[in-house]
Design goal:
The complex is a heterodimer of chains A (314) and B (275).
Chain A (H helix, E strand, L loop, with lengths): L3 H39 L1 H7 L9 E2 L4 E2 L2 H32 L2 H16 L2 H28 L14 H25 L3 H9 L4 H9 L4 H17 L2 H6 L17 H8 L7 H39 L1
Antiparallel strand pairs in A: 1-2
Helix pairs in contact in A: 1-12, 2-12, 3-6, 3-9, 4-6, 5-6, 6-9, 7-8, 9-12, 11-12
Chain B lengths: L1 H39 L4 H5 L13 H31 L4 H14 L3 H16 L3 H25 L3 H9 L4 H12 L1 H16 L3 H6 L17 H10 L3 H32 L1
Helix pairs in contact in B: 1-12, 3-6, 3-9, 4-6, 5-6, 6-9, 7-8, 9-12, 11-12
Classes of the chains: A mainly alpha (314), B mainly alpha (275).
């Protein structure tokens, strides 16, 4: 009765298919490996020339061929933190409203509109930043800041438009969709019993959110914030267009700055760029890659735990 | 008395969180409004079909950039879609093991890679050997596409119910044919959705193309030559000091945003009908 031949062909068809799709899956690992390897090798010239001092030197002088990435690391860190400072409270509010407090009918359309913001190409946000946001901040936001908070070094000096402040605000706009939508998803994984228990004890909607929902989702929300930080760190075009692109470290948010991603976008195609110059730019890119990989791994671990539990239960 | 205070706080917090939503929507509305208002006056038939003219000359358009974007994104799809979809099939159908979980994890991390890093990769991997080209641009974009497509494919295949697979297997159809004919066709709308969203995402990418496709004031000369694309052209026009070029940047932005929004909104309608 057995027909081994037939079975064998069935088996080998499966085996071939599994091997083929498995190879493509393996391709993703190869791709990630190649990405690292290429950037690492191409930056070796700069690494040999400057060593660890590359991270702590603030001179960036293409003429004398002395390169240090400190101004860009500073610019990336400060602009991203500024972005989080603005975006995190807003994103949390959005996530809470859309998952807990909003009328049922409004939730889906509002979520969709906010996620649409993430779909706008960054070069268009940058274009809007140059001609609308930067003048707006210069004329309406900077004057009151320097009048009332001008005693702080943060808000001193002249403001021409392109600045760390403008860069931070642009990044905040780009961080909000990801941080709010991941926070919302995380909050929605909180078991309904948590809410029912609080409501049954007579808590109001907000009290339920504060006492029973937010503490439960805390680590996932933290993950969402880190994901937003990763987005801000890696963002290139919009920031390049509004941050002023000047490699100087200044305490004032009104002065122009420069980020790791923008220096690459801005200077990579300099016609007279020497090999060492290009290699230094690639080292900046390599650092950026390493930092964002670390950020993403940390965020995924925090968010995954929660979303996985949910998926397993469903 | 106390109860009233609590109810008041509840109202205030509902109001404040709703205000957060409004604050986040304002930039989007402002962007859509300014792009439409400034872009619409720049757009005409010449703008969509002509080559750009040097600064100072009247007229000219973004015809070659529109053509170039379709070519580069097309190349990215040729590389990215098959790799992404097949890897996604593995992750969903055979991925319940250590290797599968590792691939998922790497794909997620890769999806968070700064796009400029993909640009540098395209530069060192392709441009250094073959020069600035449409191929290099497409390859750099495919690096961004693959992880998105793989994960969305995986997720939509997982939604296919197990009983459907079992029914097919019970009829004696081998597993690979079950996957190809039953699972994939059931999940097709989900896979297409993921692919379209990935296309929308990379169509607007600028940074990787700056380093790989470069730009070209003429019509595309071949996939091994530098090529003009819409995002790069918008960037060039936006940061130039000429008001005429700024108008063209807005026009280009309107064309690009319409393309991206059609893809995004269209996708929502496809999926809404299905479920």
């Amino acid at each position: 009765m057995d027909r081994p031949k037939f079975r064998l062909s069935k088996l080998s068809g499966d085996l071939i298919f599994k091997t083929v799709v498995g190879l493509f899956a393996f391709g993703i690992i190869v791709l990630a490996f190649l990405l690292f390897r290429e950037l690492f090798i191409a930056s070796s010239l700069s690494r040999n020339a400057f060593g660890a001092g590359f991270l702590t030197t603030s001179t960036w002088d293409p003429v004398k061929e002395v390169f240090g990435a400190l101004p860009f690391i500073f610019g990336t860190l400060v602009s991203s933190l500024l972005a989080l400072l603005i975006a995190v409270p807003l994103s949390l509010g959005i996530a809470i409203f859309l998952s807990e407090l909003a009328p049922e009918k409004l939730r889906t359309p509002l979520s969709f509109i906010i996620e649409l913001l993430a779909a706008v190409p960054s070069v268009i946000i940058g274009l809007w930043g140059i001609f609308i946001l930067a003048p707006f901040i210069r004329d309406y936001l900077a004057p009151p800041l320097s009048t009332y908070l001008g005693f702080l070094p943060l808000f001193q000096g002249p403001m021409y438009g392109p600045s760390m402040l403008t860069g931070g605000v642009i990044l905040a706009i780009m961080v909000i969709p990801i941080t709010s939508s991941v926070s919302k998803e995380v909050i929605m994984t909180v078991p309904i019993q948590q809410r029912e228990a609080a409501l049954a004890l007579g808590a109001t909607g907000w009290e339920t959110t504060r006492i029973a929902v937010i503490p439960y989702a805390r680590s996932g929300i933290f993950g969402a914030v880190i994901l937003g930080f990763g987005r801000a760190v890696g963002e290139t075009m919009a920031v390049t267009m509004v941050i002023g692109n000047s490699p100087h470290i200044s305490a004032s948010l009104f002065s122009p700055s420069y980020t790791m991603a923008s220096v690459i976008a801005n200077e990579f195609l300099e016609t007279a760029a020497s090999k060492l110059y290009i290699s230094s730019l690639i080292e900046v890119g390599f650092l950026l890659l390493v930092v964002s990989v670390i950020i993403n791994i940390a965020a995924r671990i925090l968010v995954w735990k929660l979303l996985k539990v949910e998926r397993g239960a469903a | 008395m106390k109860w009233n205070r609590r109810k008041l706080i509840d109202r205030i917090m509902s109001f404040l969180t709703a205000a957060c939503v409004v604050v986040a929507i304002i930039p989007l509305l402002s962007i859509l409004y300014t792009v439409t208002i400034n872009g619409i006056s720049a757009i005409n038939l010449d703008f969509l079909t002509q080559l750009p003219k040097p600064e100072g000359e009247v007229g000219g358009g973004l015809g070659n950039a529109i053509q170039g974007t379709f070519i580069v994104v097309g190349i990215a799809c040729l590389i990215g879609l098959p790799v992404g979809i097949l890897a996604g099939v593995y992750l969903s159908e055979y991925g319940e093991n250590r290797f599968g979980r590792m691939v998922s994890f790497v794909a997620d991390v890769l999806a968070g890679t700064p796009s400029i890093a993909a640009g540098i990769f395209g530069y060192t991997f392709i441009v250094l050997y073959f020069g600035f080209s449409a191929i290099a641009g497409g390859a750099a974009l495919s690096v961004l596409m693959i992880p998105i497509v793989a994960r969305t494919t995986e997720e939509s295949l997982r939604l296919v119910s197990g009983s459907l697979r079992e029914a097919s297997l019970a009829l004696g159809i081998p597993r690979w044919k079950t996957i190809l004919h039953i699972v994939l066709s059931t999940a097709m709308s989900g896979i297409i959705t993921g692919a379209l969203l990935a296309i929308a995402r990379v169509s607007g990418e600028t940074a990787p193309l700056l380093l790989t496709a470069f730009g070209n004031p003429y019509w595309a000369a071949g996939i091994n030559k530098p090529i003009s694309t819409m995002p790069v052209q918008i960037y060039t026009y936006a940061i130039a000091p000429f008001p005429d070029w700024h108008a063209k940047a807005w026009g280009g932005a309107l064309v690009l945003i319409i393309l991206v929004l059609i893809l995004n909104i269209g996708v929502r309608f496809i999926t809404r009908k299905k479920y």
